[in-house]
Amino acid sequence: MGEVAVDAAFIQAIEHRPKPVRIEAEGIPLIDLSVLNTPDSDADDLASLVSQVGDASQKWGFFQVINHGVPLEYREKIELASRKFFALPKEEKLMVGRDEMNPLGYYDTEHTKNVRDWKEVFDFAGKNPTFIPASHEPDDQEVRELNNQWPQNPPELREVCEEYAKEVQKLAFKLLELIALSLGLPKNRFNGFFEDHTTFIRVNHYPPCPSPNLALGVGRHKDGGALTILAQDDVGGLQVKRKTDGEWILVKPTPNAYIINVGDIIQVWSNDKYESVEHRVMVNSEKERFSIPFFFNPAHYTWVEPMEELINEQNPRKYKPYNWGKFFTTRKRSNFKKLDVENLQIYHFKIDN
Ligand SMILES: O=C(O)CCC(=O)C(=O)O
Ligand SMILES: [Fe+2]
């Protein structure tokens, strides 16, 4: 049986394994952001863009953007440098290994829903230092300072990562404003939550896998933060769970586009108008794949709750407030070690109306 060539820790339950027939996304909207970078664009063009973002966030929770204003050279440089980093011997990569104290750096044993992912990652924070709660314990008020860990090799990794993060952050704020407008809120309604943001950027490397029918690069999950801005290479493997029928849809790579998805925080802010949609990553036996998600997250002390302006008698509040930093640290715990309990999810804060 050539089938089982991977460690049992990687094997998905039968119902979560990828199917041999793959459906490609026709439906994931492709949105042109050039209006944002055209100084004399008119109000109608902006209104049309806002409604496209709103429709896509509501129907799919996912969309791709082109003409997004992030110069291609930054993306090419980080891709090249991270290829060099992942090609290093494991011992060298582990010199910047993540541990329970510092969740930033190199890591190859992440578990999603308690099954090991077929990948290795390098995480760095968008702001250095970044502050998060010292523990997941609700009564512990202590705050921990996180610092990025940079490897010696390749020497340019630090600079290209920092430059990339700076550029993508500009796009993140533009998208945040479009989403606010699409909900009928003032453009800068969410901006204040991001002053001390806890954004982190992950470089994912998915090596070829001898049993792509049994394992996943990342198991099914929803992104816990506000927004994710993902660069994927031309190999493909990201699948999104279509809201209409629950089918897994492959997101076909579009050169130089970014894939955007609304995370759990926007779901809560929008009081469920928008939904953070489940996705996962398939691996294949021939090609390695690289992807770079930028997880745009608010300050750790943010209390996440539905926007007052969106709540009324017909549309009552659907969530109790929760603390983002505690949510984040609780989640991090479960992907560091295999826990017997279910991962913390936003529905744990749901109010039964
Ligand atoms: O690699 C990808 O395409 C997506 C990765 C992802 O969903 C994640 O890291 O949260
Ligand atoms: Fe994700």
UniProtKB/TrEMBL annotation:
InterPro entries (alphabetical): DIOX_N, IPNS-like_FE2OG_OXY, IPNS-like_sf, Oxoglu/Fe-dep_dioxygenase_dom, Plant_2OG-oxidoreductases
GO biological process annotation, one example: response to molecule of fungal origin
Record carries keyword Oxidoreductase: yes
PROSITE patterns linked: FE2OG_OXY
Xref: SUPFAM superfamilies: Clavaminate synthase-like
Family recorded in the similarity comment: Belongs to the iron/ascorbate-dependent oxidoreductase family.
PANTHER family: OXOGLUTARATE/IRON-DEPENDENT DIOXYGENASE (PTHR47991)
Name of the protein in question: Fe2OG dioxygenase domain-containing protein
Organism the protein comes from: Cinchona calisaya
